[in-house]
Specification:
This protein is α/β, with parallel strands linked by helices. The chain has ten helices and eleven strands. 32% of the residues lie in helices and 17% in strands. Strand 5, helix 6 and strand 6 form a beta-alpha-beta unit. The protein is globular.
């Protein structure tokens, strides 16, 4: 009996996903992937200098690195990639079922949902903020989103290994599923009437999803309709703008700080990298 076309397509997609690999690069991204027991690692390419800097992480991983000439670095990276002499081929992370990861349990979990945010640098920065402010997961649709790539991982500066990043078939349908777990959704919209600060306190003790759209197009209509409330970040002057990664950080801080005396200090910086590794942003 001949298989239906949809079954064949599904099996083909599953095989393609199983064969998919990602090249991570940069000292921070490679170090944290080497230290992550959840990460399936395939090939490690290092210059002698990078191998010295990552010696502890390499030993912990049990991998045998290929030592490469920095002038003829063999990893298949884009020519403009600032790899710092370190590249690691891996399988994408599997964070498990959505409901298991987002089950509210104790406390008031936060989620960040991204609607058509495709820039890997923005998503990497959002992962860093999500980790700092304790978000349970960052969620985006499979299509029109940033996949797990070396550029995203490098911008995330290690957060990709610790902060769940889930890509789902349909964002609005996923929101409906999460509502059944008790989540409320605030969609950030620059044209909304309600300032986020005015409605942060009522959700301080509730599971909350913050939904952000791409810069320019913003949230799609169905995404807006699925949100429980549309809110805006209020500016000191009558006008202003934030890119999506900055808006995510502000919204996470505003909703975590409401009614929480132990919230992260607004003036505190995220945890810095170990002194023996240069900051990625300073290259």
């Amino acid at each position: 009996m001949k298989k239906p076309t949809w079954v064949i397509d599904k099996e083909r997609a599953r095989r393609a996903a199983a064969a998919e690999t990602v090249w991570l690069f940069g000292l921070h991204a490679v170090r944290d992937a080497l230290m992550n027991p959840r990460r399936e690692r395939l090939r490690l390419v290092l210059t002698r200098n990078a191998a010295d800097k990552l010696a502890e992480a390499v030993a912990a991983s049990g991998m045998e690195p290929e030592i490469a000439d920095p002038r003829k670095f063999p990893a298949p990276l884009d020519p403009g990639s600032v790899h710092q002499g370190a590249a690691l081929e891996v399988k994408p992370l599997d964070w498990g079922p959505l409901e298991d990861l987002c089950e509210p349990g104790m406390g008031a979990p936060r989620l960040v949902l991204l609607d058509r945010v495709t820039d890997p640098h923005n998503v990497g920065a959002i992962l860093r903020s999500a980790e700092v402010f304790g978000a349970r997961a960052v969620i985006a649709p499979h299509r029109h989103s940033a996949p797990e790539t070396g550029a995203l991982a490098k911008t995330a500066s290690g957060a990709l290994e610790r902060q769940p990043y889930l890509r789902v078939k349909n964002l609005a349908d996923t929101m409906e599923r999460l509502k059944k777990l008790g989540y409320t959704f605030y969609g950030l919209d620059g044209e909304a009437d309600t300032p986020l600060g005015q409605v942060a306190a009522p959700v301080a003790d509730l599971p909350l999803g913050l939904v952000l759209g791409a810069e320019g197009p913003g949230l799609r209509e169905r995404t807006k309709e699925t949100c429980d409330r549309l809110v805006r970040i209020e500016f000191a002057a009558g006008f202003g703008s934030l890119n999506v990664s900055n808006a995510a950080a502000v919204a996470l801080y505003a909703t975590r700080a409401a009614g929480d005396p132990d919230a992260v200090d607004a003036g505190a910086a995220p945890a810095s990298a170990p002194a023996d590794l240069p900051q990625d942003d300073a290259e």
